[in-house]
């Protein structure tokens, strides 16, 4: 079964067509980035760099909480967190809306972890000068045989919990390293 049989697609706003303005009544949008996607996938939001902002009166594509967003740059997908709801997304991102036969968290798992899908994506990049996925490539992905919806939901939940746990453990390890390095520096100073 192809993705197009179960999923509808919304491409983000073409960035080069957005007309910026200084008009007071124009809304100011944060632009969704690859780092935002990684945070959404990990379920951990950090206080990182400021996102690029754009002020425009144009009708632009914005994200909602739990949108399934796919990066055409990295080939990774995530569910949008409440922290990134309302962010403007560009043509580098695609929103995937699965129908009732496909659990969104299971689709997330497939896109990020399924070896068959990874192989299809990789083969689609062969011979390409720019390593960027195309909308056609995503639409043409062949999905494996799907388990029952309840199994899909269970797999998707476990996957998200594991990604979150992995991110928390990494943050803890990074913090421990920082602490130990500070202690070593103190030992060197005191001599």
Q: What is the first-to-last residue Cα distance? A: 67 Å
Provide mean pLDDT, rounded: 90
Q: How many helix segments?
A: 6
As a percent range, the share of strand residues is 5-15%
SSE order and pairing:
Blueprint: H1 3-6, E1 7-11, E2 28-30, H2 34-42, E3 53-55, E4 68-71, E5 77-79, E6 93-98, H3 104-113, H4 115-125, H5 135-139, H6 149-190
Antiparallel strand pairs: 1-6, 2-3, 4-5, 4-6
Helix pairs in contact: 3-6
Can you walk me through this structure?
It comes from Ligilactobacillus agilis. Keywords: DNA-binding, Endonuclease, Hydrolase, Nuclease, Restriction system. This is Restriction endonuclease subunit M. One of its GO terms (molecular function) is DNA binding. By secondary structure, this protein is of the alpha+beta class. It has a single domain, classed as DNA methylase specificity domains (Adenine-n6-DNA-methyltransferase TaqI, Chain A, domain 2), CATH 3.90.220.20. The chain is built from 6 helices and 6 strands; from the N terminus they run αββαββββαααα. The longest helix has 42 residues, at 149-190.
Compact description:
The protein is α+β, with helices and mostly antiparallel strands and 191 residues long. It has helices spanning 3-6, 34-42, 104-113, 115-125, 135-139, 149-190; strands spanning 7-11, 28-30, 53-55, 68-71, 77-79, 93-98. It has one domain: DNA methylase specificity domains (Adenine-n6-DNA-methyltransferase TaqI, Chain A, domain 2).
């Amino acid at each position: 079964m192809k993705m197009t049989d179960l999923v509808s697609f919304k491409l983000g706003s073409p960035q080069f067509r957005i007309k910026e303005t200084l008009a007071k009544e124009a809304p100011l949008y944060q632009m969704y980035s690859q780092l935002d996607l990684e945070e959404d996938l990990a379920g951990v939001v950090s206080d990182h760099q400021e996102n690029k902002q754009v002020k425009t009166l144009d009708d632009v594509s914005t994200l909602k909480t739990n949108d399934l967003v796919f990066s055409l740059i990295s080939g990774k997908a995530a569910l949008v967190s409440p922290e990134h709801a309302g962010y403007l997304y560009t043509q580098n991102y695609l929103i995937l809306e699965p129908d009732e036969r496909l659990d969104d968290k299971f689709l997330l798992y497939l896109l990020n972890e399924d070896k068959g899908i990874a192989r299809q994506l990789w083969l689609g990049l062969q011979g390409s000068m720019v390593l960027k996925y195309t909308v056609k490539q995503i639409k043409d992905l062949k999905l494996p045989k799907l388990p029952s919806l309840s199994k899909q939901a269970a797999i998707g939940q476990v996957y998200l919990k594991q990604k979150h746990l992995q991110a928390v453990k990494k943050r803890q390890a990074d913090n421990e390293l920082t602490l130990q390095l500070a202690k070593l520096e103190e030992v060197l100073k005191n001599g």
